[in-house]
Write a structure and sequence with these properties.
This protein is 48% helix and 7% strand. It is α/β, with parallel strands linked by helices. It folds into three domains: 148 residues, Rossmann fold; 119 residues, Serine Threonine Protein Phosphatase 5, Tetratricopeptide repeat, CATH 1.25.40; 141 residues, DNA Cyclobutane Dipyrimidine Photolyase, subunit A, domain 3 (Orthogonal Bundle), CATH 1.10.579. Strands 1-6-5-2-3-4 form a six-stranded mixed β-sheet. 48% of the residues are buried. Bound molecules: flavin-adenine dinucleotide. Flavin-adenine dinucleotide binds next to helix 10, helix 12, helix 16 and helix 18. The site of flavin-adenine dinucleotide (FAD) has 28 residues, from helix 10, helix 12, helix 16 and helix 18.
Length: 461
């Protein structure tokens, strides 16, 4: 078993056929925005030591990213400022390049006469396109290291998996060798490397972006790795023991609230799983949490890696498409425009409360997310329109939006992804149904509505 002090070479793969050369090693940080517990940074440190070369970190900032508004950039930049401080303390400079990443990164590598580039992994199409462009123009080697998943996504499975039950045995078989502790990142050849690079002016960069500034930052969750670590500890010590029983009760404050940190890579899922497996909570609770954090999350990554239509209605399974199309013309009791939904102006106070929580706090409890998306299916003119509206709202307001989990979550709720056919009913066809009375059987709906419509929404615990 890997002790965690070596890097399992199966985590890395080459993206072009160039050789490692003499010259600085560049870690192109993208999705895994943290100093600690980051296999891509560790791999870059390892290469720099091996080749006796200095290491630097580059973050490429596109003028906009899949419609992300100010709320998301604010969270990300505050986290990145913390990463920059940690890197500086370790003698590693960080540079931000502004512009089209597939172009700015190779140009910078050329200018620095880089010996090799290390990137982290994302299954999202746009990021993969940047990488393809960069790999083709670089004159040095480029590697990709999966620092986001416990089991590297391409190793977990070579194809799109049907469901949790089909990916679970594969992930379980590899879990022991990959879910290790982490060594400390260390760069050993850093002669005056901080001299050529000024501290990043994060506020100036924020001003340069071409983004929607009407979706404001949220105050209920502190960005960055230190805050993520604190939240993880609090969750493991005080909350996890009610997770298995209460995680579907949005009033119970029984979930971790870690998804924004995981999404921006401010927290490592592997580190969280490693700590969870060793904490004092009961086995049942530890296992229930690891099922979500590991199996369900990595199933969503698998979906996006192998289904390049992942953010469209076209991606859903054939049986689901067929049943939804059969019911596309069914009478809808209510029809709302995307704007009415956005404004939380429906006849259903429970749905409105969930939408308000998304607008105000950038979060929505996982159980409510399913109800929320299924009602969008029920109240939209077509299943394809529902898919589009749900993703638009999720990605515009949820701090953890634009994530494989979100694409899979919407496709599960509206399109039966990773699910099976259920008994047939209007509009839904054979897609699994949810309604307000089902919610009322599970939790105190009035209490949830009162909390989410009060001025002071909870921040999960
Ligand atoms: C319509 C819909 C939209 C969603 N959109 C997103 C999204 O944009 N971003 C996002 O990260 N998750 C999304 N999810 C999945 C899930 O609801 C959230 O991950 C979870 O609510 C986050 O809260 P938490 O961190 O407190 O979860 P916890 O219950 O504490 O779980 C811990 C971690 O496990 C993972 N996880 C939990 N549930 C799931 C799941 N069903 N599928 C995959 N991974 C899971 C997440 O990384 C989560 O942070 C969506 C689900 C649905 C049904």
């Amino acid at each position: 078993m890997n002790s965690g002090h070596e890097i399992d070479q199966r985590r890395a793969r080459r993206l072009n056929l160039r050789q490692d050369q003499k010259g600085p090693v560049i870690y192109w940080m993208s999705r895994d925005q943290r100093f600690q517990h980051n296999w891509a940074l560790l791999f870059a440190c390892h290469k720099a030591r091996l080749l006796q070369q200095p290491l630097e970190v580059v973050f490429t900032l596109a003028p906009s990213f899949l419609g992300a508004p100010l709320r998301h950039y604010d969270f990300m930049f505050k986290g990145l400022a913390e990463v920059e401080r940690s890197l500086r303390e370790a003698g590693i400079p960080m540079t931000v390049l502004f512009g089209e990443p597939g172009v700015t990164l190779p140009a910078y590598a050329e200018e620095r006469r880089a010996g090799l580039v290390v990137s982290d992994f994302s299954p999202l199409t746009l990021v993969r396109q940047w990488k393809r462009n960069a790999s083709a123009s670089l004159s040095c080697a480029i590697y990709e290291v999966d620092a986001h998943n416990i089991v590297p996504c391409w190793l977990a499975s070579p194809k799109q998996e049907y469901a949790a039950r089909t990916i679970r045995p594969r992930l379980d078989a590899l879990h022991r060798s990959f879910c290790t502790s982490f060594p400390q990142p260390e760069a050993s050849c850093q002669p005056d490397s901080l001299n050529f690079c000024q501290p990043v002016k994060w506020d100036d960069l924020l001003d340069m972006l071409d983004i929607d500034r009407s979706v404001m930052p949220v105050s209920g969750i502190t960005p960055g790795t230190a805050a993520a670590e604190k939240r993880l500890r609090l969750f493991l010590d005080k909350v996890l023991d009610r997770y298995a029983d209460k995680r579907n009760d949005p009033n119970a404050e029984a979930v971790s609230g870690l998804s924004p940190y995981l999404h921006f890579g401010q927290l490592s899922a592997q580190h969280a799983a490693y700590e969870a497996a060793r904490c004092e909570a009961s086995r049942e609770n530890r296992e229930a949490f690891i099922e979500e954090l590991f199996i369900r999350r990595e199933l969503a990554e698998n979906y996006c890696l192998y289904n390049d239509k992942y953010d469209t209605f076209d991606a859903i399974p054939e049986w689901a498409k067929a049943t939804l199309m059969e019911h596309a013309a069914d009478q809808r009791d209510y029809l709302y425009t995307p704007e009415e939904l956005e404004a939380a102006k429906t006849h259903d106070p429970l749905w409105n409360a969930a939408q308000l929580s998304l607008l105000e706090s950038g979060m929505m409890h996982g159980y409510m997310r399913m109800y929320w998306a299924k009602k969008i299916l029920e109240w939209s003119p077509s299943p394809a329109a529902a898919f589009e509206t749900a993703l638009w709202l999720n990605d515009r307001y949820a701090l953890d939006g634009r994530d494989p989990n979100g694409y899979a979550g919407v496709a599960w709720s509206i399109g039966g992804l990773h699910d099976r056919p259920w008994s047939e009913r209007p509009v839904y066809g054979k897609i699994r149904y949810m309604n307000a009375s089902g919610c009322a059987r599970k939790f105190d709906v009035n209490r949830y509505i009162a909390t989410m419509t009060s001025a002071q929404q909870p921040t999960f615990f």
